[in-house]
Amino acid sequence: MTRDALIPALRALVGDANVLTDGDLGAYTRDWRKRWTGVPLAVVRPGSTAEVAAVVKAAAAAGVSLVPQGGHTGLVGGGTPDASGTQLVLNLGRMNRVRGIDPANLTMTVDAGCILQAVQAAAADAGLLFPLSLAAEGSCTIGGNLATNAGGTQVLRYGNARELCLGLEVVTAAGEVWDGLSGLRKDNTGYDLRDLFIGSEGTLGVITGATLKLYPQPVARMTALAACASIDDTVRLLQAAQARCGATLTGFEVMGDFALSLVRKHFPQLPQPLPPSPWTVLLELSDAESEAHGRAQFEALLEQALEDGLIADAAVAESVAQSKAMWHLRESIPLAQSEEGLNIKHDIALPVSAIPDFVAHTDAALQAAFPGVRLVNFGHLGDGNLHYNVQCPEGGAAAAFLREHEDAVNALVYDAVCARGGSISAEHGIGELKREELAARKSPVALGLMRAIKAALDPQGRMNPGRVVAAG
Amino acid sequence: MTRDALIPALRALVGDANVLTDGDLGAYTRDWRKRWTGVPLAVVRPGSTAEVAAVVKAAAAAGVSLVPQGGHTGLVGGGTPDASGTQLVLNLGRMNRVRGIDPANLTMTVDAGCILQAVQAAAADAGLLFPLSLAAEGSCTIGGNLATNAGGTQVLRYGNARELCLGLEVVTAAGEVWDGLSGLRKDNTGYDLRDLFIGSEGTLGVITGATLKLYPQPVARMTALAACASIDDTVRLLQAAQARCGATLTGFEVMGDFALSLVRKHFPQLPQPLPPSPWTVLLELSDAESEAHGRAQFEALLEQALEDGLIADAAVAESVAQSKAMWHLRESIPLAQSEEGLNIKHDIALPVSAIPDFVAHTDAALQAAFPGVRLVNFGHLGDGNLHYNVQCPEGGAAAAFLREHEDAVNALVYDAVCARGGSISAEHGIGELKREELAARKSPVALGLMRAIKAALDPQGRMNPGRVVAAG
User: Fold this and answer.
1) For residue B128, what is the enclosing H or E element?
2) Of A376, A359, A354, A372, whose CA–CA distance to A413 is shortest?
């Protein structure tokens, strides 16, 4: 098929209304942080797995590349077409059906284009919990969550998107449908194809459906804030909370003082229950028994931590509204830092035990190299995942600082991360943004294995080309 | 290198004492159920990752295939050489060092040849829990557990071996070392190589080391037995226990009456606290708070279940000794059925919700096809995993029954499993035993993907050839 013949062929496959070539395609061609803008050959919106397969086959026959796309909320440019005008955006948004819920098996099967919040709501309607939770949940899709192995705020207890998925349906690069949907907790029949597609960012195939794990709804969810004098104390508090509360500890977020000061500055209407301290921890317990039991557990933990000197102060939310307000503080940090101006973001992970040394070393090294630099440090400490963001000195010009220093800042931070066995992408993925960094920092053996897999499953290199890794 | 030159080369690499060609090699060449016996070119016992890499390179240069081997306790013939006399057994048993424990990160890094029980003990010495637990734990190795994605009795709460591993060290088919050891809970830097090697049964590379997840030790572990009138009631009890106890429910095993009757017959000295009933459930709670709290939870659960008619009777262990005795009952079932004679074993998984229908249908179909046949049905119901074993009619000749009917029994059982979205290998793997069954029952698309991956990572087909899948 010639490239010219492809568009009419696609219209015949999915309907005229679902092949977009004109008008404002910004929602599909520009990421929401406006860092990448592309020009597609067309945006195709198939309505079923069979249509996805037919589109992939037609594109292959025409020698055209595909960029699979969910809610287009990614942070690394993995879902935006390039500028060549030759790539098809394959948007899964029309595939948004909950295919079924099996309460006795604690599973649900969904189309890839379901919005995460709709998945959570469908589980809640069945009296169950789908725990994946992250800032973009109102617009990201479960297919995108799986393609990028999304993390979020409940990973400490329930794991990443990977751990919440039992089975996948995938359209391969050859346009075949792999029906790997499965409600099984145990299945040792061959290679783990599921986990190979999860986190591959659309470079090996297109996720079209998934079977997800559900959990019983906890009877009570409770939140507290605690003030710590040092990052070392936050790690010790984490250990104490894990030992005492086991799996009822479902959230453990840290917020550095500068991060919370930006929230105070830009959102002064948000109450901050605790006075400023070097670190504030948000803890969440989810209790299967009763609210009274959860509260008693929480108070015992925090009293012991006060006695042991791990925390200086604490506040337990007395109502759902107070609990939401505490989470709202945490969730306002990214918005507050946007208000403050551009910064250099790092989505890093470290062994929890390495975090105090990393923070002490890197804070000091950045101050020495860029005097006055400000650190917006917050994140999912329970998972070893920090959003360690670097803002220009007070009163400085943010854009100029980034232009001049972004590469050097990244090198300093990533060197410190890698020296401590850490990751340069904890939960956001590689996409366009970190492809070169990955190629430079991943071991040659790992890169070789990845390239061999890419070449084996996408020999023509047409699935989201140039993202994550190039074929070997 | 010629094949003749290989043995002296291996002796130079790992030392004369670690290249075995003579004497009784039965431990390496005959599986413990004595279903497969092979003849190796040699048994090589490298002492380090570097030695493993050197052995793999030498074997590749000589065109010789390798059979990686851990504790050699597998049930599907995946670790036994073939009869050709041309394969090297690569036994990892000398690599048994705990490389390090990081309590603050809740991780430990070990050589692949560590015995599972030694891994558990090292974690316990650090005041922590490594939860993987299975019958062969005194002799299986963690490398074998990972290569086969072992399951066991704690999967309900902690997952399979896969879920307990954060990072791997692997020697590739090319003899390169991939250092993927990692203490990270989040790491989205490229394809999930770890999970590809886990469960690949040595056909893609040799696992030489692993970083494992640890958990805080629960304060109290408690066990109870409950009598159910039907398999339906066991499933309803599971749901009630999950809803009430959340993650403190760490074990949920079922035992059919015939299975327990074999224990009564062959091990009459073992106390059975409950009178015979169609199904007996073993429940385990692990409490982070206190024994009193766990006991109160347990009693409340069982009282409610009695009231709701889900169970007819229950017994809560009053001491660690009683708890162990209950587990001992469960663990004695495989031994009791061995005493009773050969049977046809099925390690199957189903969606939990499909189990009642599966059991009703398949019990009846087997009775219709093979009147008087006896079903030894037990397993990890919480994971949907049954060991659904078929024994010849009372007084019949077991060997003759197997000879005559094994294929037909397997076809009947596996048809019923597959019709309900189940797996023909829940936790034991494929190996030699189920390779043909897998080729016949796995979807052609999945098999095609598996073959492409095999060809990409082991292009010469020298890693445990013929197991799981042949190269495409």
Assistant:
1) strand B128-129
2) A359
- Residue B237 has what DSSP assignment? H
Model confidence, pTM: 0.97
DSSP secondary structure string, B333-354? HHHHHHHH---B--EEE--GGG
According to the model, what pLDDT value does residue B2 have? 85
**What confidence category does residue A309 fall into, taking pLDDT thresholds of 50, 70 and 90?**
very high
The pLDDT-based confidence of A282 (bands split at 50, 70, 90) is: very high
Cβ neighbours of A411 (radius 10 Å): 12
A192, B195 in Cβ contact below 8 A? yes
Q: What percentage of chain A reaches a pLDDT higher than 70?
A: 100
The answer to whether A29 faces chain B, any CB pair under 8 Å, is no
Flag whether pLDDT at A472 surpasses 70: no
In A160-219, the residues whose Cβ lies within 8 Å of chain B are: 160, 162-163, 172, 176-180, 182-193, 195-196, 198-200, 204, 215-216, 218
Nearest-neighbour CA in chain B from A151: distance (Å): 8
pLDDT at A369: 97
Q: What residues contact residue A37 under an 8 Å CB cut-off, 6+ apart?
A: A29, A30, A31, A80, A83
Q: Of how many residues is chain A composed?
A: 472
- Among the residues of B63-115, which ranges form H helices? none
**Secondary structure (H, E, C), chain A:** CCHHHHHHHHHHHHCHHHEECCCCCHHHHECCCCCCECCCCEEECCCCHHHHHHHHHHHHHCCCCEEEECCCCCCCCCCCCCCCCCCEEEECCCCCCEEEEEHHHCEEEEECCCEHHHHHHHHHHCCEECCCECCCCCCCEHHHHHHCCCCECCHHHHCCHHHHEEEEEEEECCCCEEEECCCCCCCCCCCCHHHHHCCCCCCCEEEEEEEEECEECCCEEEEEEEEECCHHHHHHHHHHHHHHHHHHEEEEEEEEHHHHHHHHHHCCCCCCCCCCCCEEEEEEEEECCCHHHHHHHHHHHHHHHHHCCCCCEEEECCCHHHHHHHHHHHHHHHHHHHHHCCCECCEEECCHHHHHHHHHHHHHHHHHHCCCCEEEEEEEHHHCEEEEEEECCCCCCHHHHHHHHHHHHHHHHHHHHHHCCCECCCCCCCCCCCHHHHHHHCCHHHHHHHHHHHHHHCCCCCECCCCCCCCC
Residue by residue, DSSP assigns B188-220 as: -SS--HHHHHTTSTTSSEEEEEEEEE-EEPPSE
Residue A333: per-residue pLDDT: 95
Q: What is the pLDDT of residue A446?
A: 98
pLDDT of the residue at A412: 98
**Beta strand A88-91 with A42-44: parallel, antiparallel or unpaired?**
parallel
Please state the rounded mean pLDDT for residues A297-318. Answer: 96
Which pLDDT score is estimated for B416?
98
pLDDT one-digit tens code per residue, A129-157: 999 999 999 999 999 999 999 999 999 99
Residues 48-107 of A with CB under 8 A from B: 102-107
Residues of A in contact with B218 (CB under 8 A): 246
- Report the distance separating Cα A361 and Cα A416, nearest Å: 8
Reported in sequence order, the residue ranges of B234-318 that DSSP labels E, i.e. its strands, are 249-256, 279-287, 313-316
Please give the average pLDDT of every successive group of 10 residues along chain B, which has 472 residues: 92 98 94 90 98 98 98 94 96 98 97 98 98 95 98 95 98 98 97 98 98 96 97 97 93 97 96 96 94 93 97 95 96 92 94 97 97 96 96 93 96 98 96 94 97 97 92 55
Report the DSSP pairing between strands A249-256 and A88-91: unpaired
| pLDDT recorded at residue B472 | 52
Under an 8 A CB cutoff, do B186 and A160 touch? yes
